[in-house]
């Protein structure tokens, strides 16, 4: 009996091993793929070079990987799910974009991990494991095209393809510190790619080198040769940068990057994107969802509108399979598939049309909008915030701009901050793909020079960034003061002081705003701090004298005005104040 049981166990064990080997063969999943980026290694070789004098293939010498939502003839497309792989046959045709790249001279070397059913933007996958982020190994790589971003960041391939629905290329590009391009909606054909939400889907690509990014783009977009066109306007979305958790690092790098406009003849403008969208997209008011008083209610409403369309179209594409197979789908997917009213979908579709028109009117043919790609550092692996609705909404409030408008967007690395990659994004109007690719080709070297100069500087990076960011905050405070927005000015000056507390002007300027609000004790204290730093700052003596006069400290006020007069003998304000006080209190 015991021997019979043992024999049965050996049979079952053998069948189990055979099943595992069969599944591994069927999926061609390597045991230890590089950085966990790949689920299958393969080789799609380009055709022979044409004979001279014909030009060589444009992508000759490059290798690439593809996210596992692209079909390759003879291979199963797992779509980030083992259960999907088990219920689908091998593809009979290769995706059109993959074939185009191979025909263009590049070699495809593998299929990469994506989030389950390409649904989320985290980069985690319970079926194939989470690829290791080369730029921050203890943090998520971002999704859905996590493996493609990791393969480029690790130097395994020259470029890679991914799917971007709600940020699936831009977010991992930012988290892994590589260039990432989302083209205008529907300009790259998606034949042979599993859809997620068709009205939002775009085939994007990653690269480390801007020239590779551009070469791939020219082939996929089928662009004829033309001279590079320079942007005429950069619009900085100030309010979006204020949302960023690494405002300090981005502000410093932005301030060092944008002086290139002087040499290129570009105009730098500033825009409050929240106010602009609120005035141009009435449909967002119907998506406020109780956040109408939020400082960023329009951006959050746009994010929600995108998420409504995302899950609505995802259900149309895949709910039949989910209901029939009943797979153990990740909670982040099934938890987001509740029904939404028809009016919500209609409002979201209206918002999509309106945001495209709004950004088109702002950017026209020669404008670039500059925003943070994401609001903060990549979350740590298995962090609770990954399952937080707030995290998903806040992360997608910036990605929703291009997803909903259909505009093209490129993620541009700006080095690191606190050991995490930092990036900004450039957005051009829908159809401005060549223009955007040309722009990043032109300015990328300047950006990297600034990043490298910062890294090699003898001055502490943090100190240098603090000083630059503090100056930026002070300038914003000055603008608010001129507009008589006293409390807003105080907030900006306070931010400047937090960043660099050794500049007397910051305290003196904040004192001026406090005086306007009749906050005389705060004004007096700020002026004293300013004078302690710089005993020759005349404005601080004048403002402290005014504060002390209003507080009833007349003798001390006369002393301050007198000191100002010593420093500036022709100062009329000090002279008038002294005469006034001496007449009132001889």
From TrEMBL:
Record flagged with keyword Transmembrane helix: yes
SMART domains on file: TPR (SM00028)
Protein name: Amidase domain-containing protein
Transmembrane intervals: 6-24
Domain of life of the native organism: Eukaryota
Gene3D superfamilies in alphabetical order: Amidase signature (AS) domain, Tetratricopeptide repeat domain
Record flagged with keyword Membrane: yes
Residue intervals of the Amidase domain: 56-214
InterPro entries with a match to the protein in the record: Amidase_dom (IPR023631), AS_sf (IPR036928), TPR-like_helical_dom_sf (IPR011990), TPR_rpt (IPR019734)
Keywords on record: Membrane, TPR repeat, Transmembrane, Transmembrane helix
Organism: Oryza meridionalis
TPR repeats: 470-503, 538-571
